[in-house]
Amino acid sequence: MKNIIILLSITCILFTSCSQNTPPTIIGEIVDNKKIEQIELFDLESENKTILDSINIINKTFNHNLSFKNVKVLEVQTNDYKLPRLVFFYEPELNYKFIINGNNMSIVAPNNSLQAEYNKLLKKLTPLNQKLTEVSKDTTLSKKDLNRLSSKYFENLLDIQKDYIKKHPKSYISLYLLKHIVRYFDVLSYHELNAFYKIVNNEENKGKTMLSFIENKLKSKAENRIIGQKVPEFYLKNPNNKVFTLNDFKGHYTLIDFWASWCAPCRVTNKKIIPLYNKYKEKGFKIVSISFDDDKEKWVKAIKDDQIPWIQLSDLKGFNKSEIKELYNVERLPSTYVIDPEGKVVDQYLTHTELEELLETIY
User: Fold this and answer.
1) Is the domain of 72 the same as that of 132?
2) Are 350 and 271 in contact (CB under 8 A)?
3) Which domain holds residue 72?
4) What pTM did the predictor assign?
């Protein structure tokens, strides 16, 4: 099969700055008989992805002026659903080449450009994304292994992006990465999101729309925090049908941990928390886990497999039907509350590191 190549280049000489009087113009030609009729550019900075521009291709060629005056993060799509959608960091003073070769599409950019930097980051992210796709399609995997591997690769992807943001606080790429994580995954705790927001919120980053989106999400998380308030009472059974209430933990700092056997990140968290529990249990630290399982056998098996030593409770109604979900405003798993000896919330939605730091201050 012949290679199918589309070369889209700015009318100025590739990789040189355009004249101030010459608007950036994309020209292109389709080689071979690929039936690509349209290229669309979507805004990735707004809350809802909207189309900003489209390029109609007639007789396998096109000539199109770009009207963006500032740096923008765009998504490039064609009418061929087999081609991947690409993130495009547009800088008005630079020229680019988009290459479509078979079912692959890439963007070639000057070495000092945001796009070139993002392309380097993609080389780290793409293999993990491919592994995630492979795992999701592997019908030979058990549900447990599927969750374990999916969680592993997702955490690796997240760690690479978080590490990039920390190392490049002034980069427009960092701002986009944080907005993307918040928009599509919402896996950062209030404390973690607040810390990352402070990193990217600087004079160098001009992406006000993305900053505003992140800030609104941060405010929403803050509004859902109930620091200093007493948590609602509960009456739940352990696997042996013994009823426990919140009053059973009065007089102790207690971690209320919301989880489920089917939640892969929860299972990872279980193993991380055990050393903290062993370290502080003699000082009075308590943990009670409340599961959103609806299958007792799977719930009990997960407790045994993870070797969890603290009290386990559940109403076995599942995540969507449990009253506990509404009572404690649990939006995702895992979620946590730390309450003081009087039953008041000290902090909530903590990462493992944040929990460790909090316990160090308490004990």
Assistant:
1) no
2) no
3) 5-109
4) 0.76
Does residue 158 share a domain with residue 43? no
Domain count, the chain: 3
Count how many Cα atoms sit within 13 Å of the Cα of residue 341 in the half-sphere of its side chain: 6
Query: What's the Cα-to-Cα distance from 46 to each of 33, 203, 291, 345, rounded to whole Å?
Result: 35, 20, 36, 35
Asked if 218 and 254 sit in the same domain, the reply is no
Type of residue found at 161: Q
pLDDT digits (tens, 9 = 90+) for 297-329: 999 999 999 999 999 999 999 999 999 998 888
Asked if 275 and 266 count as a contact pair (C-beta separation under 8 A), the reply is: no
Distance between CA atoms of residues 4 and 68, nearest Å: 29
Using the predicted structure, report yes or no on whether residue 196 has a pLDDT greater than 60.
yes
User: What six digits make up the tokens of 272?
Assistant: 């991380």
d(CA 322, CA 77): 41
Do 94 and 124 share a domain, yes or no? no
Same domain, yes or no: 24 and 85: yes
